[in-house]
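To the wet lab folks,

You asked to see what we're planning to order before we commit. Fair enough. Below is the target structure as tokens, and below that is the sequence we designed to fit it. If anything looks off to you, flag it before the synthesis order goes out.
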């Protein structure tokens, strides 16, 4: 499945703890090189690194290397819930399955919002161990935000590693995060030059970071009394017409 982390025990695919229960009846199985298949249920065995799939009344075992993904029924209310314990229960019940990553992406901003920065760092590292390069960029940025609170010195090393070894998009986000870190250290000019403007100049082709880079550049220039702020504000409005500032 592209996951490398091993979790203990056998985790039933449709098992969801707490008040979130399955809202969809089917489990989706996608084998590598094969079409999607609807099955009755599935579970993952970490000891054998294999999936046990129940279909047409029989149980079939598939090696992990042959499985692209399995998707259990979506928990009822999953899209609306902001309850951290419920989302944590979904994640735990779906290890190495579809909804663990979905719950993880929901939990990270909730941890930040509720000042649970240490938990955000812990969960990110836990998920990184098996997601690897498939880690969602948004989760990575939230990890950096949490690390800025819990361990700023470690954050600098993380950002350097992202710039050195990451993709262009990852590097661009890392430069923006570096700008934010410098700004929090009251190094506003360095934040502008070494963070925000560097992102604009070196990564002008990375669409994912373009708007944030322009916004942060405009704000930093405004705070510094830099008369170039209006120039970049105009660029921001031209490229992103929905931007009102």
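Sequence we intend to order:
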């Amino acid at each position: 499945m592209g996951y490398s982390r091993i979790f203990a025990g056998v985790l039933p695919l449709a098992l969801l703890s707490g008040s979130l229960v399955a809202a969809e009846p089917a489990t989706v199985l996608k084998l590598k090189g094969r079409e999607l298949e609807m099955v009755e249920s599935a579970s993952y065995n970490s000891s054998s690194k294999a999936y046990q799939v129940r279909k047409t009344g029989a149980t079939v075992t598939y090696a992990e290397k042959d499985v692209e993904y399995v998707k259990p029924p979506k928990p009822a209310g999953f899209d609306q819930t902001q309850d951290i314990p419920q989302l944590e229960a979904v994640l735990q019940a779906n290890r190495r399955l579809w909804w663990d990553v979905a719950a993880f992406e929901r939990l990270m901003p909730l941890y930040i919002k509720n000042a649970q920065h240490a938990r955000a760092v812990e969960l990110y590292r836990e998920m990184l161990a098996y997601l690897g390069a498939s880690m969602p960029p948004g989760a990575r940025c939230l990890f950096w935000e949490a690390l800025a609170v819990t361990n700023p010195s470690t954050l600098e090393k993380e950002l350097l590693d992202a710039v050195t070894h990451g993709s262009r998009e990852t590097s661009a986000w890392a430069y923006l995060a570096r700008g934010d870190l410098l700004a929090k250290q009251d190094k506003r000019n360095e934040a502008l030059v070494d963070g925000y403007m560097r992102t604009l100049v070196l990564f002008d082709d990375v669409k994912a970071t373009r708007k944030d880079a322009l916004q942060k550049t405009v704000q930093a220039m405004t705070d510094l009394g830099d008369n170039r702020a209006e120039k970049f504000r105009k660029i921001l409005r031209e490229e992103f017409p929905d931007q009102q500032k």
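Structural context that might help your review: Residues 151-239 form a domain with the Serine Threonine Protein Phosphatase 5, Tetratricopeptide repeat fold (CATH 1.25.40). The first helix runs from residue 84 to 93.

Thanks,
Computational group
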